[in-house]
Amino acid sequence: MKRKKSLCIPVVLAVIILVCSGVFSLVKPYEDSGDHNKTRTGKFISHYIDVGQGDSEFIEFPDGKSMLIDAGTDKYGENVINYIKNLGYSKIDYIVGTHPHSDHIGGMADVVNAFDIGSIYMPKASTNTETFENLLLTVQNKGMTINTAKAGISIAVSEDYGYSADILAPIDNEYDDLNNYSVVIKITYGDNKFLYMGDAEKESEEELLDSHTNLKADVIKVGHHGSNTSSSSDFVRAVDADYAIFSVGKDNDYGHPHSQAVKRWKNIGAEIYRTDEIGTVVISSDGKNITADAA
Question: For domain 42-280, which CATH number applies: 3.40.50.1100, 3.60.15.10, 3.40.718.10, 2.40.110.10?
Answer without folding.
Answer: 3.60.15.10
